[in-house]
Amino acid sequence: MLRIDFYVQHLVRHGATGIELVSGEAVKFHFPTGERLSNKPIEHAQIAQLVQEAAPPRALEALRLAGNTQFVHDSPAGMRVLVKLEASAGASWKVTILPSTEPASGTASLPEIEGNTTPMGGQGPQGGIPVPAARPAAPQAPAAAPAQVSGGTKPRPAIQLEPGEPRLNYYLRLMKAMKASDLHMSSEVAPMARVDGSMQMLEEGAKVLTHEDLFPIFMEVTPEKNREEFDKVNDTDFAHTIEGLSRFRANLFMDRRGIGGVFRQIPFDILSVEQIGLPQKVLDLCWLSKGLVLVTGPTGSGKSTTLATLIDYINQNREDHIITIEDPIEFVHPNKKCLVNQREIGTHTKSFKSALRAALREDPDIVLVGEMRDLETISIAVETAETGHLVFGTLHTTSAPSTVDRIIDQFPPDQQEQIRVMLSESLRGVVAQVLCKKKGGGRAAAYEIMVANSAVANLIREGKTFQLKSVMQTGRRLGMQTMNDHLLEHVKAGRVAPEEAYIKSNDKALLKQAFTANGIKMDLVED
Fold first, then answer.
1. What is the pLDDT of residue 1?
2. Does residue 151 sit in helix, strand or coil?
């Protein structure tokens, strides 16, 4: 929803005759019986953002040159309003929103611009900073226009937005049609997408977008609390949904060129165990009554998808209470055999550690911690696993041994012996994963699996984590495997090229030896 439409709703719902917004002052609502003021003043930045989102380019130009103008806006609330803009010296604007006597047309903002055409010394109302153009029409891709996709030229799909649909959805719908995993939109760059792990242009000959283009497009879909967070720290995370199509995990940020955004596709349908190729030993971890299970890997390795599949498997096969703590909520889990409560950081709870501490009083059987970021969260997660709960968590580590080291290294030296003992007793398994490009398109996950048997527990307790890889190599009959084991399996099955497996390996020398022993040739020269 645009900021202006929030105020138009007040006109509709409460029968107000007008609304006045002035930089640094309380919002004034006019009623036939008098005036009412908001509890706190509105900042100039909020007014500027409202204007940039809603005003057509000609109105913004008139405001910049003359200091006053007006235009007509059609709101989704079903009302056409007249918006008057005034800019005084310094960073102060006044916006007046009045009901228009004309019926709403059902189309986007229709400019009816008036204004004094005497220039204000060539400077905008913000002391010489030009007002960016806002609300450019959503691009409509011609059906026959070709787009270059890796492997050749394919016809670009025709994307049509529904009336009132956010402009960002055009790019997200095109990304979905391309079967891309991520959409990248950065200032001074044409939109790009990640398809099968590789970056490519979203459209052939696409327009380079500026900060002024992107800011209103992003703000149109950004929740209010995230706008405030972005204003303070220059980045924010949230989820965006296109009903009937997909959910997207969004991150907005600022860089040297301006605003940028990355949107990760989160399908509505959770992938099955068979679809992602989870080994049976990983599924066995879902039947535990207590303990800590960690899914690890670099960013973009599919950790969230794996965890969603595991939680869905439990949801289908057990009768328990599941609590997920995420930032933001990605996959949505309906209640099947389990009761599932999903909590989002910043919306439903303050932090991972506060939500995890509260979970102990919420009678859970299974707790999913979206990210174990700090010492206190890790500590509470380990304690929760020790006290009779099954805890799933994630870390950005690339192997099972490095995962154990990362957890222990989070603690001060005088506490590390104690955490080794606690971890040796609570850890049940580590699943480290990477995504590899498949021959012919798509991606395949490769898994390293460490099951915490007595030998693993002893090595953790004694601080001999460097020997864990040997235990995994000798523990294949228990379902353990190293990353190289699974990469070699993919190559031998013809799913993944040797070069791709080599790039994704965390022990390249050993994998190279395995290729040689199996007669596998690799066209890759090491640096």
1. 59
2. coil
CATH 3.40.50.920 corresponds to the domain 166-266: no
Question: Which residues, other chains included, contact 417 with Cβ-Cβ below 8 Å and sequence gap of 6+?
Answer: none
The answer to whether 3-114 and 273-481 have equal CATH topology is no
Q: CB 449: neighbour CB atoms within 10 A?
A: 26
**332 residue type, one letter:** V
What are residue 235's phi and psi, to 5 degrees?
Answer: -160, 160
CATH 3.30.450.90 fits 3-114, yes or no: yes
DSSP at 209: B
Taking CB atoms within 8 Å and a gap of at least 24, the contacts of 487-493 are: 487/436, 487/446, 487/511, 488/514, 488/515, 488/518, 490/436, 490/444, 490/446, 491/515, 491/520, 492/518, 492/520
188-221 core/surface letters (b: 16 or more CB in 10 A; e: else): ebbbbbbbbeeeeebbeebeebbbbbbbbbbbbb
Kindly state which CATH superfamily the domain 273-481 is placed in. P-loop containing nucleotide triphosphate hydrolases (3.40.50.300)
- H, E, C per residue of 224-251: HHHHHHHHHHCEEEEEEEECCCEEEEEE
Both tokens assigned to 253: 């940020």
Tell me which residue has tokens 């760059």.
189
Extents of the domains making up the chain: 3-114, 166-266, 273-481
Closest CA to 15 of 33, 3, 28, 1: 33
Q: What is the mean pLDDT of residues 336-344?
A: 96
Tell me whether the omega of the peptide bond preceding residue 328 falls within 30 degrees of 0, making it cis.
yes
Distance from C-alpha of 194 to C-alpha of 183, rounded to nearest angstrom: 7
Cβ proximity of 240 and 223 under 8 Å: no
As a whole number of angstroms, the distance between CA 368 and CA 329 comes to: 11
pLDDT digits (tens, 9 = 90+) for 121-148: 333 333 332 333 333 344 443 333 333 3
**Cα 354 to Cα 349: distance, rounded to the nearest angstrom:** 7
**Cβ–Cβ under 8 Å, residues 295 and 224:** no
Say how many CA atoms lie within 13 Å of 51 toward its Cβ. Answer: 35
Per-residue pLDDT averaged across 456-482, rounded? 95
In the predicted model, what is the mean pLDDT of residues 506-517? 95
Beta-sheet strands, E only, within 157-242? 182-186, 192-195, 198-201, 235-242
pLDDT of 79 > 90? The answer is no
Q: How many helices (H) and strands (E) does the chain have?
A: 18, 22
